[in-house]
Structure formats: C-alpha cells, structure tokens
C-alpha cells in the first residue's frame, strides 16, 4: 500500500512538473511579447524556455536592446537571435537602401514573412497565402529578390 501511494505521489509530481513547463513557456511568451511590442516588425517564439527572436529591426542598436531585455527575463534558458536589422541587411546585400526599405515596408503588412540576406541576396522567407504571394510579387517586380517562402 505504501509503495502504491509513493508511485501515485511520484506520478502526480511528474505531471505537475510537466504542467509547470507549459505554464513557464506561456509566462515567458507573455513577458517576451511585452518587450517586443515596442518593435513592430519583430516577433519572439518560446519553446522549453528558449526564446527565439525573429523579424526585422530598424537599427542594430534596437536589435541589441531587445536581445538584452529578453536575456533578462527570469527562467529563460537561452535567447536565439534569428532577427536582422536594416543596417545589417544594407551591409550584407547590394540592394539600395531605398529598395530595401520598400521590401521591409511591404513585409510589415505580412507578419509571417521575414526579410533576410542569404548568400548575399535579399530573400523573403516564411509563409504566405497565394493572394499575399501575388501582392508581394506585383509590388516588387524589378527587384532581384529570392522568394523563398512557402505559399499555402
């Protein structure tokens, strides 16, 4: 009987710990989103205590500031940086700052699309509907861009 009680207690504790992890991620997500809300083109994903910063920032300073704030959130395991800044994109590609700004402004209307530089070429990644794909391609017909997003 004592053994059965111990097994039940261990099972209950294990379930509580698993539940706490899910709650922890939800709490981390809320705290991270509050920080990131100051940056309209950025987002953050949380899984198992790991925060992943995505999207675009106007300046490297803004991006660094966001990363610093995210790293200060209690119970965060680590913060992954998958975001870009306009300054970095300009340095990493041959596209003009004006054309790059057009792409970033367009991407603001499609939060599931990220602007990146892959092998020196401006690349759009993420997910888009077929309607969004048409709008994006019509809006940027003359630019040398890789459309590397999934159309759903």
Automatic annotation (TrEMBL):
PROSITE patterns linked: PROKAR_LIPOPROTEIN
Residue span, BON domain: 24-82, 106-134
InterPro entries in alphabetical order: BON_dom
Name listed for the protein in its UniProt record: BON domain-containing protein
Organism: Bergeyella cardium
Lineage, broadest ranks: Bacteria, Pseudomonadati, Bacteroidota, Flavobacteriia, Flavobacteriales
């Amino acid at each position: 009987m004592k053994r059965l009680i111990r097994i039940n207690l261990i099972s209950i504790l294990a379930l509580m710990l698993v539940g706490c992890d899910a709650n922890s991620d939800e709490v981390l997500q809320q705290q991270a989103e509050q920080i990131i809300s100051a940056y309209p083109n950025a987002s953050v994903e949380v899984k198992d205590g790991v925060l992943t910063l995505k999207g675009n920032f106007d300046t490297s300073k803004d991006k660094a500031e966001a990363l610093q704030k995210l790293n200060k959130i209690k119970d965060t395991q680590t913060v992954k940086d998958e975001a870009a800044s306009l300054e970095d994109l300009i340095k990493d590609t041959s596209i003009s700052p004006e054309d790059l700004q057009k792409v970033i402004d367009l991407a603001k209307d499609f939060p599931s699309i990220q602007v990146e530089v892959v092998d020196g070429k401006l690349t759009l990644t993420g997910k888009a509907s077929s309607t969004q794909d048409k709008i994006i391609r019509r809006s940027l017909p003359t630019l040398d861009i890789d459309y590397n997003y999934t159309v759903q």
